[in-house]
## 1
Amino acid sequence: MKVALIIGSIRTGRQSHKIAYYVENILHMRNIETAVIDLLKQPLPVYGALLGSGSEENIKPHAERLSEADAIILITPEYHGSFSGVLKNTLDHFWSEFQKKPIGVIGTSMGKLGGINASTQLQHVILSLGAYPLPVKLLVPEIHLLFDESFNTQNENMIKLTSRFLDEFLWFAEAVYQKKLLKESNKPSLTSITTALNISLNTPTKKKIL
Ligand SMILES: Cc1cc2nc3c(=O)[nH]c(=O)nc-3n(C[C@H](O)[C@H](O)[C@H](O)COP(=O)(O)O)c2cc1C
């Protein structure tokens, strides 16, 4: 199973990437493959802007990362009581890449509420992507106090909350992943179809002699 993480924060001095890379490390420890879409490192053009405005080359690789993912985590800062514009711009670039995928939300803030408005609004948007929002979200208040330069934290509460969030997320993601695998394995093979129809692929069709 593969999980993509989208970091919805690109400003100089940003904090939200810290929880993203912390979560990525924990996913690796749980033997989950990851792909991080860090929009500071690989930005996207403003959706619908004239081609040639820059960063178009990043659209395809991001689309591939999202397509290959079985589940997705969105990390958003709280900006003016909502999620970030850069994250919404990213969501608008893609459509089929999100379909029928479980999506977890992590909200961040420097204040005490941990991006509660941003994350709740984002869960609503996930419905319009044709995806499944995880009911549980991870809120990260006072994020600027929590992580060291290696994106580790000693904060016991954050360690516990992150672990619980990932338990819920991976339970949901695994359930949908298994369902997809089951559907794949139930697809009839060409051999079983020909056997059922009692025809051989190697036998040329006999011409009817009148
Ligand atoms: C444009 C802007 C608007 C913000 N609005 C809010 C807000 O409404 N509520 C809040 O708790 N924090 C707000 N913040 C603080 C961010 O939540 C804080 O910077 C936090 O570290 C997450 O964002 P970051 O990844 O950009 O650092 C705002 C920050 C910016 C840059």
## 2
Amino acid sequence: MNVDRIKGKVSTRIFIVFAALALFVIASAPVMAEESVSGKDLVEKARLDAEKAKSEAQKAMAEAEKALTEAEAAIAIAESHKEKAKEIKDNAMSKMVEAGYFPDDITLENKEGTSKAVFSHKKHTTREKLKCMECHPKLFIMKVGKDVVKKGRLTMEEMKKGKYCGSCHNGKKAFSINDIKHCRKCHPKSK
Ligand code: HEC
Ligand code: HEC
Ligand code: HEC
């Protein structure tokens, strides 16, 4: 083989390889371009979707905030009505007490009838300005003898634990049930 022929063959092969490469590039260029275009579209679409979702979320948030403000305003109105109603009820009850609707002195008697204590509504509500709620219904239900007395639960022992009269008559809010010099205040008829 002569050198020129070999050169010729080699350059032909090189040419073929280059030509094939060039063809491949030319053939794939539009595909690649298309791919990158649709990729851009996808990104743009996702961006638009995200923006839409964000604006919808913002709208929903604004609506929720508006509803909350309205609810709070309604609650404030309801609460002021409730306060007013309570005040009216308290005043009415105090008037009933003042008018003597409730026996001024209630006599509380133990089950066995061996002990008696007096309780004055007027002194506690009108004079001491205690609200009905401070005793009813958490300490006493509003019925003489129906609650603690008949059931035998209104005892000194319970009161010393801070129940019933003892929730106030503990030496802090009012004179103590434990002090011997105060027994007579509640048990005026005992020796
Ligand atoms: C310091 C506590 C206290 C306060 C304050 C108080 N009460 Fe009483 N109330 C009592 C006790 C004690 C009884 C008797 C409960 C029992 O026998 O179990 C009673 C009984 C009653 C009864 C039943 C009376 C009956 O004759 O059947 C009514 C009604 C009543 N209270 C209404 C009121 C009203 C209204 C107010 C507010 C204006 C008020 N009370 C404030 C302690 C209180
Ligand atoms: C704040 C009022 C109050 C004071 C103060 C008080 N008591 Fe009583 N006590 C009551 C009431 C109410 C009852 C239940 C009704 C009843 O049994 O007389 C009661 C019940 C009793 C009873 C009969 C039932 C039981 O629990 O044993 C005895 C005994 C008694 N007290 C003794 C005393 C003595 C002693 C003192 C003074 C150290 C005293 N009390 C101070 C309100 C009081
Ligand atoms: C919510 C609190 C409270 C409760 C419950 C309560 N008291 Fe009183 N009581 C007072 C206050 C306050 C005074 C006035 C201050 C003082 O005298 O230490 C008073 C005063 C009294 C007085 C003296 C009245 C006078 O002539 O000056 C007697 C008696 C009395 N209470 C009995 C009772 C009896 C009996 C009970 C339970 C059936 C009772 N209290 C429950 C708060 C209470």
